[in-house]
Automatic annotation (TrEMBL):
This is Creatinine amidohydrolase. Its cofactor is Zn(2+). Keywords: Hydrolase, Metal-binding, Zinc. GO terms for molecular function: hydrolase activity, acting on carbon-nitrogen (but not peptide) bonds, in linear amides; metal ion binding. SUPFAM superfamilies: Creatininase. The lineage of its organism: Bacteria, Bacillati, Actinomycetota, Actinomycetes, Propionibacteriales.
Length: 254
């Protein structure tokens, strides 16, 4: 299932229906309680498990090494954030797609663990479709709250978008040794509830930097996070991602 374990003649014989999965992580601040590797950890872990599940079910799928550094400029203020400019990330995704287009592979699936990459990922998907004829897909381990996803934690008021309840729970499941739950505090921008039209997951989005909301770094309420919630969340993400990969392998618009 690992693309990079194959030789070039083996890669030259892959089926055109093979889905190449590229996990997009991020190395960026996630508040005082989570490591800067959070998005990288989640994207690569879900991708590994989902590709394994899909592969066992007979879906033609290969896993590319995860991209650790992506577009985290909204967290540029914090030490530990290592970010690519949008131009660099766009060129990187295009160049990876261009390289894959020299193989028989015609299906490329970005599994994106960092919401800040989503808009750019959609543009890259279209660019790769037009320039190289690839069938491209952009999915998330779970749909981000600011892209219409739901949060189950009422105290987050629909704003658990970064280092909140779900993400903290997921890291508690995957790498409990990296979570400093004793430092977790709520950081919910309650002032945004005054607006009906503008906000996370509302009809009108807005440009923001994470320190616009204060010095905490995270946006959400991690205080009630548990490994059990994280396990359920992780397993659901693996299941939906594996199902998406199976669809991607047979996807056709006609
Ligand atoms: Zn994150």
């Amino acid at each position: 299932m690992y693309f990079v374990d194959r030789t070039f003649p083996e890669i030259a014989e892959l089926s055109p229906d093979t889905v190449a999965v590229l996990p997009l992580g991020a190395i960026e601040q996630h508040g005082p309680h989570l490591p800067v590797s959070t998005d990288y950890l989640i994207a690569s872990s879900v991708a590994e498990a989902a590709v394994s599940t899909a592969s066992s079910a007979g879906v033609p799928v290969v896993l590319l090494p995860a991209l650790a550094y992506t577009k985290s400029d909204e967290h540029a203020w914090a030490p530990g954030t290592i970010w690519l400019s949008w131009e660099t990330l766009m060129r990187t995704l295009i160049d990876i797609g261009r390289s894959l287009a020299t193989t028989p592979i015609r299906r490329l699936f970005f599994l994106n663990g960092h919401g800040g990459n989503s808009a750019l990922g959609q543009v890259a998907c279209r660019e790769l479709r037009r320039e190289f004829g690839l069938q491209t897909f952009l999915g998330h381990p779970s749909v981000p709250v600011d892209h219409g996803g739901r949060t189950s934690e009422p105290s987050e008021l629909g704003m658990g978008i970064h280092g909140g309840f779900h993400e903290t729970s997921t890291v508690l499941h995957l790498r409990p040794d990296l979570v400093h739950l004793e430092l977790a505090e709520p950081a919910v921008p309650t002032g945004l509830t005054a607006y009906q039209q503008i906000g996370f997951g509302k009809p009108v989005s807005f440009g923001w930097l994470s320190d616009d909301f204060g010095p905490a770094g995270h946006i959400g309420d991690p205080t009630g996070a548990t490994a059990a919630v994280g396990k359920a969340h992780f397993e659901a993400a693996v299941e939906t991602t594996a199902a998406a990969l199976a669809e991607a392998a047979r996807f056709s618009v006609s």
